[in-house]
Amino acid sequence: MKTFVVKCVKSNRKEPHMVSGRNATIKDVAKEAGVSVSAVSKVFNNYGDIGEETRQKVVEAARKLDYIPNQAARKLSSKHKKIIALILSGLKVEKGVTMPFEILTGVSHYLDETDYEFVFYGTTTKKQKEKSLKQFCAEHSISGLLIQGLKTTDPYYQELKDFTLPTVAIDLQVGNGAISTISIDNQQAAAEVTERLQQAGYANILFLNGTKQDEVSQKREAGYRSKVKQPRVVYAHFSEEEAFHYVNQLENIEEIDAIFAASDLMAIGVLKALREREISSSPAVVGFDDMALANYVTPSLTTVRQDIEVMSRQAVRDLLAQIENNKVTHRLLPYEIIVRDSAKI
């Protein structure tokens, strides 16, 4: 599996200092600092059994010699590397789809303040069949894993059920007590939206879902079904275009009081179709995620907001706690229902 690799490495380095016509080495740093080579190596790799005085001596010696610590890192066994991987599955390049990239940005930014190296990999169901997650992590010396976007039928989703490497699953509940999880309560959020639609007088509510295989789809549909006596569910694969075509061709649409879409992108497709059909009494429309476009479409979109920046930052914190302290966390973050013009609920 190899589609993207993003390495966040701070640079701004000078040319290596020359010692008697050659680049400075770890031995030169050790000699300059008056410590052992092993001590220098431990300082550069953040081992905890080095005193602050020794650490300062090594840092000053390295600065004086313009020594590049990565020269020492190359000599280390891969088991000493500290690498965190973010794996995103099923990436789609569609306008307005920002969640995966917000996660990538948030994780990268937060890890930039740590001494962990960060790599990003995109994957697909096909690539997962070619190489197991365990094999992939072993080959790339991964210390910890953040993963998002898997379908419940994906090989990696199944493998996570008995996975042992420190891992945080984002928007996934894989039934493995050794894996940390983080998400909002998708089921509760969908149930609350449905109930508020009903309280506002919308009786006949159509639920426009993503797929049957995505866990967030399953949770959101379960929340909707828990509140309606006669559920009506259609799948549009999180596609604006599919949502548009479905609503554009929907017969007896006047009988629908509200359309609740499991993503903002599908909700925007619904709004476009309703405008094109020029229905005198259009149904209310609610989305999910509060993507950037939700406040700028016409009418502005009522939706469920989840804070991806907070989710990304907390996911990294939980992963580091698992790597360093063997602490596993199952976390539900708060959500907020944002009421705009498309549905006054």
TrEMBL record:
Q: Where is the HTH lacI-type domain?
A: 24-78
One of its Pfam families is LacI
SMART domains reported in the protein's UniProt record: HTH_LACI
Asked whether the UniProt record includes Iron-sulfur among its keywords, one would answer no
Gene3D superfamilies recorded: 3.40.50.2300, lambda repressor-like DNA-binding domains
Q: Indicate what this protein is called per its UniProt record.
A: DNA-binding LacI/PurR family transcriptional regulator
Write the record's keywords in alphabetical order, separated by commas.
DNA-binding, Transcription, Transcription regulation
In terms of domain of life, where is this protein from?
Bacteria
Organism encoding this protein: Streptococcus gallinaceus
Q: Which GO terms describe its molecular function?
A: DNA binding
